[in-house]
Amino acid sequence: MLLLGLMHAFPCHPLTLFVNGVACKNPNQVTVDDFSFSGLDKPGNTSNKLGSAVNLVNVEKLPGLNTFGISLARIDYAPYGLNPPHTHPRATEVLVVLEGSLYVGFVTTANKLFAKVLNKGDSFVFPIGLIHFQYNYGTTNAVAFAGLSSQNPGVIRVADALFGTKPPISDDVLMKALMVDQNTVDYIQSQFQ
Ligand SMILES: *[C@@H]1O[C@H](CO)[C@@H](O)[C@H](O)[C@H]1NC(C)=O
């Protein structure tokens, strides 16, 4: 955990603390509202290219999570909506399907795929740091909730991290890494502008 914390540390002003958290409030100023968040009954807006929406309730939205190593998310999927391959550098995730069916999976460090179809009431674990996805292959909306083992899990989307960076990663790097030609790289990059 210490190593992971260092790997994902952000540069801070030298006089600030180096912790994956936020400053603690004065206990006398804490109220019950610091421990509460509302709105998870509302579907996210899935009118986007991916057909999915994640409402991650981390320590920024629910201050009472601070220092407790836990957070939660609601994920909505339109028919054929995808929560695309991504990883949480600081959290294992456990997901439960409340509506619909999802094809979900993760990939190990040995590039082995563990994937299956989940139906309403089924749950699944995505181990910390591993690339994972959920795809609604059905013709109805799907809804899942997830618990994550960090107050600030972080998210890295694979495609965005390769093709949606600012500035862009050089074509030479992407051509060689993906074994494709420049037109293919440029085309994919154009989809992430
Ligand atoms: C959902 O997002 C789309 C695309 O950004 C937008 O046009 C639409 O107004 C949004 N719908 C709602 C209900 O907010």
Overall description:
- This protein has 193 residues and is an alpha+beta fold.
- The chain folds into two domains: 40-154, Sandwich (Jelly Rolls), CATH 2.60.120; 156-193.
- Helices cover 16% and strands 29% of the residues.
- The chain contains four helices and ten strands.
- It has helices spanning 2-7, 158-163, 171-178, 182-191, and strands at 52-57, 71-77, 82-87, 93-99, 102-107, 113-118, 123-126, 131-135, 142-148, 156-157.
- The strands form two sheets. The chain has a five-stranded antiparallel sheet, with no helix packed on it. The chain has a five-stranded antiparallel sheet with strand order 6-5-8-3-10.
- A hairpin with a 5-residue loop joins strand 5 and strand 6.
- Helix 3 crosses helix 4.
- The model is unreliable at 1-14 (pLDDT under 50).
- The structure holds 2-acetamido-2-deoxy-beta-D-glucopyranose.
